[in-house]
Structure formats: C-alpha cells, structure tokens
Design a protein that fits this description.
The active site is at residue 142. The protein has six helices and 19 strands. The protein has three domains: 7-73, Structural Genomics Hypothetical 15.5 Kd Protein In mrcA-pckA Intergenic Region, Chain A; 78-167, Pseudouridine synthase (2-Layer Sandwich), CATH 3.30.2350.10; 172-271, 2-Layer Sandwich (Pseudouridine synthase), CATH 3.30.2350. The protein is elongated and about 65 Å long. The chain has helices spanning 22-29, 34-42, 120-128, 158-166, 240-247, 293-301, and strands spanning 7-12, 20-21, 46-48, 51-52, 58-59, 64-69, 91-94, 98-103, 136-137, 146-152, 171-179, 186-190, 193-195, 203-205, 208-211, 214-223, 226-233, 269-277, 284-288. The strands form four sheets. Strands 7, 8, 9, 10, 11, 12, 16, 17, 18 and 19 form a ten-stranded mixed beta sheet that branches. Strands 1-6-3-4 form a four-stranded antiparallel beta sheet. By secondary structure, the protein is of the alpha+beta class.
Length: 302
Amino acid sequence: MTQSTQWQFTTVLPSDFQTKSLRQLLMADWYLPKHLVFSLKKGQRVLVNELYLPVNFNVHPGDRINLTFLPADFDHPYSNVTPDSAATVNILYEDHNLMVVNKTQGSKTHPNQPGEVGTTLNHVAAYLAPKNQQPYVINRLDQETSGALLIAKNPAVVPILVRLVKEKLIHRTYLTWVHGRLNSSQGLIAMPIGRNLADKRKRQLNGAHPQMAMTHYKVMKHRLNATLVAVQLRTGRTHQIRVHFAGLGHPIVGDPLYANDSRQQRLLLHSWQLRLPLPFSFNQVTLTASVPDTFQRFEGQL
C-alpha cells in the first residue's frame, strides 16, 4: 500500500462563526496542539481563501480554511497495522477523518506485538487499505467488552481526539448488567483504584499507586437479583467500571476477574453510546451501538 505523503483539510467557516484570530480557531475551536500550529505557520501550510495568513490575523464567517500536514509534523505518521480480514467490521459512523465501529465481544482492540493479527484494528486496517488509509487507535475496550470504538484515519486528528477524550468532551455511555439490586436510582462512585499486587491482571480499590476514579450510573431496569445500569465515566482508569461495581458488592455479570460466575457466562459490558465533536468542523454526532445478543439472552433467563 502506498503511504500518504500529506494530509489536507478544507473547511468553510459557517455563517454564525464569531470572528477571531486564526490561532484561536486552530487551538481553541479545533484543539490543535501548539507544535502543530507552529509547523503549519512555519511551512506556510495554513491558507485562508487560498492565501497564506499569519495566525494572529482574524478569520471571518465564510472564509475557506485549508490545512496541509506532512509526515515530518508527527512522531508516528503511520500506524503500520497489519491488515487482516475486514469481514467483522461493523461501521457505526465514518468520515474523512475518523470512524466508529461496533467492536465484537472477544476481539482485542489492537495488536500488542509487531505483525500480530486478529484484532479489531487489524480488521479495520484491511477495510481502509483500498482507500489508502490506516487506522490509529484512540481509546481501547477490554477484550470482552463490546460496542462503540473510536478510530482515527490520519495522524492529524489523533492529538485532537486524544485531547477531546482527556478533556471529557467525548461522552461515552456504557450498558451493563450487575449482580443484585441497586437501591439508588442513580449515583456517583468516587473511589481510588490502584494495582493488585497479588494478580497483575487485576486492579483494586485503594490498591498500589491509587488514582481517584469517578463513575456515574443510572438504573435502567431491575430484575430478580440483577440490575441493568447505564454508566458514564468521569475518569478513565483500567477496569474502572468493573472494579467500582465489584467494590459496591455488585460485580458485573460474567466478569472473569471480579465476579464468581460460570465460565459459560460472558461479560455483560457494552460501550453503548458515543457523542463527539467532529474535527475541523463545528458539528457533533451521537452514535448508538446495538446491544449484543448476550444481553437479551441473559435477561430472558431471569
């Protein structure tokens, strides 16, 4: 596959755009990091109405903004993920910059070794290869967690999406069945999570090197000895949802690390909804990933 030698973006500022400096547009509205703005400025690769404009000059409604990025602008311009079969790729949304896929349960998010195949990112790489594009991982889901997964399609939007995640401007809602009956209709779990020194696979409340973690939940359904909850993360710690609910005494159904379920029961944790601002625009999308059959089968058994 021929690798891209540049990435171009063109946007016409909307009629309700408030006049501001080009620098403010790039950094405050579009979340470009300072070093990329410097590279665009130094190379005169930021054009307004087809002409180079210093970034301290104002831009106005109707102006046409063109940005050109080069591989030298990035530490890792190419993801170099080995393409695998694209048969399992279930696309919830796709544009020139990014895509959101409904990750299947049991599939790893990304390869951990050079040349590794079989992960979601390998499948997406095969889907993108005919378009001369590559996938770049933004966030990850545990192997047994299904649902909406955000993937960048060029290196320019990677730092933008990472910053949107960090600043909680990308909103993710998970669905999960937990054991027992939660008494409160909603709540905030605020408990630090650290490493479990007895089992390196696990995390625990107040474990080694703890970091504060906050999880908001809302009860969706009550069933006999089980509760369906919608969960939103205010922090992003490893196994956060799983550890927090286990710490409350309501572990996730099917959790192989934190619950005592039969090995036949799969983890019932699903990345259900994703709302995000779109890079180099003033729009946002809200996406819903269909709930896997394992959820319906479990509820049918209750």
